[in-house]
Description:
Layout: E1 2-8, H1 14-29, E2 34-41, E3 48-55, H2 58-64, H3 68-73, H4 75-78, E4 87-88, E5 92-93, E6 101-102, E7 119-121, E8 124-126
Antiparallel strand pairs: 1-3, 1-4, 2-3, 5-6, 7-8
Amino acid sequence: MLVVTRFTIGDDDSGTFADRAQVALAALAARPGYRGGRIARSVDDASSWLITTEWDDMGSYRRSLSGYDVKLAATPLLAQALGEPSAYEVLYDDGPGESAGIRVSDRARDADTARVGETLAMGRETD
């Protein structure tokens, strides 16, 4: 599981953002299922930042967000993120020390059509 969270940060806030991002990443790193993370800034646009983290699975990432230290250190920072999808399942690996391979998706077949609070009863949608 790979999480890519992008930010647009003004010049005046870049130093404090980097410091806050390090604290947030440290809080996330202490959670079970964490594999690694990075803080990066674009070489083409100094206001464009990102934080990437890697997790054992989606559940580990989501549970990490409920940790007290993460709520204090990371949640305020993550609230500044651009409003776009950030969690990705890794479908292909190829790196040093790893055997290349395609993974089967864990994504539900109806993920694009199911809605929260929707149930199916005898073939009919009900609310």
